[in-house]
Design goal:
The structure is a single chain. By secondary structure, this protein is mainly beta. It has one domain (2-86). The protein is built from no helices and 8 strands. It has a 4-stranded antiparallel sheet with strand order 1-2-3-4, with no helix packed on it. A hairpin with a 6-residue loop joins strand 6 (52-56) and strand 7 (63-68).
């Protein structure tokens, strides 16, 4: 199953069965056949009530992408772009 999330700059497609995603610029045709290399693995997708969402890029959740749906209320500050967050691994 493909889940679609539109952000202000991108269209995000999540293949929830294969745990992979692809990100396209707004205006690109998401129905165009993708290359296998267009997909990236992900380990979790967290949707927040404020319209933000976070994609875990590794099992430890130390590499994250965070963005906001284009219908987020309130909208994020102007100029806020999707970015990768790197968290330090917790020491045991």
């Amino acid at each position: 199953m493909i889940e679609r999330i539109d952000s202000s700059h991108s269209v995000w497609l999540f293949d929830t069965e294969r745990m992979r995603f692809r990100r396209l610029p707004r205006g690109a045709d998401p129905a165009a056949p993708p290359l296998e290399s267009d997909w990236e693995p992900y380990f979790a997708l967290d949707l927040a009530d404020d319209g933000s969402f976070t994609v875990a890029l590794n099992e430890e959740r130390t590499r994250l992408l965070r963005s906001w749906r284009d219908d987020a209320t309130p909208a994020p500050a102007e100029g806020v772009a999707t970015g990768e967050l790197r968290l330090e691994a917790a020491e045991e």
